[in-house]
Design brief:
The chain is mainly α and 145 residues long. The chain has helices at 4-13, 28-35, 39-47, 56-63, 76-94, 120-130, 135-144, and strands at 99-102, 108-111, 117-118. The chain has a 3-stranded antiparallel beta sheet with strand order 1-2-3. Strand 1 (99-102) and strand 2 (108-111) form a beta hairpin. The longest helix is centred in the middle third of the chain and has 19 residues, at 76-94. Mean pLDDT is 84; it is low at 9-17.
Amino acid sequence: MDIPFLDKWRKRNVVAHGVAVRVGDPDAAGVAELLAECDLLRAQAQDAGVELDDSPGSLTALDQLVPQWRDDPEVLPWLGNDAGLYLGTVIVRTVPGAVWQVWPNGLPVVKLESGREIDVVAIGHEWAESGTPELSQTLAEASEN
């Protein structure tokens, strides 16, 4: 059964998978800085000769990497988290009006000026596991809203 308000409530009240942020008095700049670290992804990209400079071009470069991490079940979930947080960082830094928002369950999402919320962590996990959706395509879609 499709009940829009119930679906929205469920999204906000489920346990966050992978990444959860708990902040008492949210400092938007501090939260954004923390979420932008993405150490594992940055190290993997650097090893492949890709510089992650928080630009749209860096997402395109990530989409082109050979996914050697898929062979390591220990690395895959962490890389998925980092990919999602890096995607969110690029969106927040390049799409006017986009901001980080932390749901009550601790899940960090990107909220666009239109009000649309993007669960970038889920997208990062999908990308790390299968290569789709492409991170650059997600940015392009966010830029249209």
